[in-house]
Amino acid sequence: MILEAIDSWIFLEKTILILTIVSITFFIAMYSTWAERKVAAVMQDRRGPNRAGPFGLFQPLADGLKLFMKEEIIPTVSSKYLFVMAPALAIITALMTSAVIPWGNTIHLFGRDISLQITDINIGILYIFGVVSLGVYGIMIGGWASNNKFSLLSAIRGASQMISYELAMGLSLIALLMMTGSLRLSVIVTQQSEGLFNWNILYQPLGFLLFFICALAECNRTPFDLPEAENELNFGYHQEYSSMKLGFYLFAEYINMFISGVVMATLFFGGYDIPFVNESLWGNEWWVALLGFGILLTKALFFVFVFMWIRWTIPRFRYDQLMNLGWKGLIPLALINMILTAAGMLFFGK
């Protein structure tokens, strides 16, 4: 009976945590569409959304309602089951990556220690890479099932791009894993919690730069948005989609942006660690954990802003330039960074 009660409490805690994280992720993705247009408007000296509510804050709600109300169109020549499954696969894989991220320190409530991490597996980084690799199937299946030559070409571009840049991204993390000695994200965050000068960005600046560039390509963001090159491929791999199927694809992109920001903050910027503050002085107080959670969100949203800033600043690459950068630029740099890190650990210690 005691074990059953404990299991029921754990199930309830994890269910609440999952629903909370999914709700916050959807909320941030929804308002990222508003922030994207506001950032673009500032950089282009115009107003941006300003009709729906004060400062246009209700614009994402209006856009969501419009997508729900639009006609559901499935091309008669498409592979219908795959056509419907593809956007669902894209958004499910985007949400699954958050399962291994430590969102805050352990809190003590109701006589129990509650972890703000859905699951703490010992191969957390490998799990993220595995789920991210599945995300490309949402693009590939959607492009192929549409039976549209532009969608298919866009899907092939997206798959080639992700395969190329995932390799460089993985190699950029090997040097970090050599220093931390663990694939568990909670361990990586704990090792950085001694203060600002323990953050991995200070010891792996080149690794972070490589990871950031690859994250842009993984999220299909400018200057690597070749799968959605409107002037070449009309509307990209989701050209034939309408209503909320299109909305799922668009939401998946912004969710991937947010989760990429959270992962970068976790791996290189201390995660939920509060700069210049020793959280251990307050123990497992709930308000300290919430403050750390807010700090992690702030770091992640900063990266989302940088993603948007880059989109409206840097022009899109040609496809041959994209591939040359990935295979001839980033992969050799990641290997050099790995060798330098190994040499540094050999001669100077960790």
What descriptive keywords fit this protein?
350 residues; mainly alpha; two-stranded antiparallel ribbon; 2 strands; globular
Structural write-up:
The protein is mainly alpha-helical and 350 residues long. 66% of the residues lie in helices and 2% in strands. A two-stranded antiparallel ribbon has the order 1-2. Helix 3 packs antiparallel against helix 4, helix 3 (80-96) packs parallel to helix 9 (243-268) and helix 5 runs antiparallel to helix 7. It starts with a helix and ends with a helix. The model has no long low-confidence stretch (mean pLDDT 86).
Number of helices: 11
Alpha carbon gap, first and last residue: 47 Å
Helix content: 55-70%
The SS-based structural class is: mainly alpha
Strand fraction equals: under 5%
Q: What low-confidence regions span 5 or more consecutive residues with pLDDT below 50? A: none
Number of separate structural domains = 1
What's the pLDDT, averaged over the residues?
Answer: 86
Strand order of the largest sheet: 1-2
Radius of gyration, in angstroms, nearest whole number: 21 Å
**Order of helical and strand elements:** HHHEEHHHHHHHH
The total of beta strands comes to 2
**Sheet bearing the most strands, described?**
2 strands, antiparallel
What is the 3D form?
Answer: globular
Brief characterization of the structure:
The model has no long low-confidence stretch (mean pLDDT 86). This protein is mostly helical. The protein has helices spanning 2-43, 59-69, 80-96, 124-145, 149-180, 185-191, 205-218, 230-233, 243-268, 286-311, 319-348, and strands at residues 107-109, 112-114.
